[in-house]
Known about the structure:
The structure holds 2 protein chains of 2 kinds. Chain A has helices at about 35-55, 60-70, 75-90, 95-105, 110-125, 140-165, 170-180, 190-200, 205-220, 225-240, 245-260, 270-275, 285-300, 305-320, 325-335. In chain A, about 65% of the residues lie in helices and about 0% in strands. By secondary structure, chain B is mostly helical. Chain B has one domain: Glycosyltransferase. In chain B, α7 packs parallel to α9 (about 195-205), α9 (about 195-205) packs parallel to α11 (about 240-255) and α11 packs parallel to α13 (about 290-300). Chain B is globular, with a radius of gyration of 19 Å. The model of chain B has no long low-confidence stretch (mean pLDDT about 95). Classes of the chains: A mainly alpha, B mainly alpha.
Amino acid sequence: MDSDQQDDIPFYEKPEWADVVPIPQDDGPNPLVPIAYTKEYSTTMDYFRAISRSQEKSQRALDLTKIVIEQSPSHYTVWHYRQRLLEALSVDLSKELDWTQWMIGENPKSYQIWHHRQVVIGRLSAGGATSTSTISYRDLSETQQKTKRETVQVELDFIASALADDAKNYHAWSYRQWVLSYFGKGPWWDEELAYIDNLLTTDIRNNSAWNQRFYVVTLGPQGLTDEIVQREVQYTKTKIERTPNNESPWVYLSGILNKAKHPLSEVKEFCEGLLEVPRANFSSFLHSTLLDIYEQEAKVQKSAEIVNKAKGEAVMLAEKVDTIRSKYWNWRKDQLKDIVVDA
Amino acid sequence: MSVLNNTNTALDASAPELLMDLHVKYIQELDTKKQDLEYWLTEHLRVNGLYWGATALHILGKPDALDHEKIVEYLVKCQHDNGGFGGHIDHDSHILSTLSAIQVLITYDRLDAINVDKVVDYVVSLQNEDGSFSGDSWGETDTRFIFCAMNCLSLLKRLDDKRLNLPKIIEYIVRCRNFDGGFGNSPGGESHAAQVYVCVGTLTILGALHHVDVEQLGSWLSERQLKCGGLNGRPEKMEDVCYSWWVLSSLSMLKRVHWIDGAKLTRFILDSQDSETGGIADRPGNMPDIFHTNFGIAGLSLLGYPGLVAIDPVYCMPRHVIQRIGLTDKH
């Protein structure tokens, strides 16, 4: 429980709650027989029902929402009530940030807490120097830039600490994308790439980090220039060489080429080179990429020889490298029959 | 057409059987566990829980194992003046519980018990300018909520409501399509099998499946099967029984279920049963819960497990119920 809830007296035995008549749960026809440890929670809820039914806007109501939420962090009705209270009571929202940080540490997978954090940040930055309104970062004064940068940094650092515990936390990544785009163009986009690189150095198989890389590279302020495409292809090749049987960089590689409208055959030599590496030769992703390359090439060149190479890859996948998906690979092999070839 | 699955599926001879009677008992007893703290802490999911339980029982061929009348009476109490349903009595309206309530009421053929027009008003009110839907008046958005809204309005035959902007919905879903062929919770969000299900489901309901690269997505989905036979939701994540539903139903909508190894997946789900208490866990050896029990059984039904009632891959409700209300032309 939170640090300021440490006194032993339950809240409902304190004088400020004496006037509230708790409302018991209407839970359908069965009689309920709660044992001791759930009594604490059900009593708390009886008080919550009483307070929320009258939509009381008070400090004690705010305190009570905190007690309930700390016991039942996904109780969205209580979160909702808390939002209304924060607004009505003009509470200092920076304290709310400290509390949500603590709560997310305890319950990193609760949708409600992450959303609450987003709402609070949105409200905090709606006015003042961090406003994302019409002024772009470039046009802000130096002091304003500094303030905005700090606000963004606090959020990114906070999210990074959640990702340090679970580098694939979907909520954390989703919120991170929201922060990046909510605060618009700014230096944080460039810095994000270094952060992702760190994560991929720790865990080269972190698909969430690969997805974030795609997000930053394709949506970032610089745009997907030819230079960036080459840099990314090079970067990904190095990662593939290290873990040839890792789905993420392979998908990323074809994703980037596709997005930039470059043909997959740009990496043909690289892939054929990997066939010589014993460890890579068993990668289903290597063979499936080669199958894609040969299939495309065969269609353009109308060459029976290349169709055969593609067929070889499909057979390799269905019978040796990826037998669990043999039906899919056999279907791919059958598709090759439709390619028109020159006699 | 027979309601039950045929018995022609190839099964692993050494696989355990589906403990049908034990699962029925497990579901029937869920509501009697009020001494458990867990019961109270999942209060906000009570209506969803009813949907999972009622659906699983129907698929197990035991539609009368719970008291219909009491369920309907309870659900009526969960509807608010704004038309939406809360996760429990006194809980605020939310699109997730609203869909569950409607699914249960339609399964029991008891829509007459509630005010349908108000449900439609509520669902329609949650659409945002960009086409997305919020989960409630608090504003969290997620592709899950779009699916809940479309699923709900489709079941109620109210997709023609003039206040809706359907092209914007399709546009938004397309923006959530990723470079790997999958879909995320928002534009740019990582592909995740459960988000794929809701996006493919939405496109199926809206007759817009042509926006999906079937081969690329089908391949990504089949890539989710691991050597143990189970499916994961994202690359390099652990297998989990609930993905038997999210991945399999998506493959089913794309007509590509045969791209994965059905016998191995069946074995994985059966191994995740709790042979003492009944119920199915996320993976072998773990504690069962109603969520995984339902999606495990639903997955087995899609795989054609003998003796189970056929399930609809879009609505995750018994196929005969979807046929009864005339929605089978969706896929």
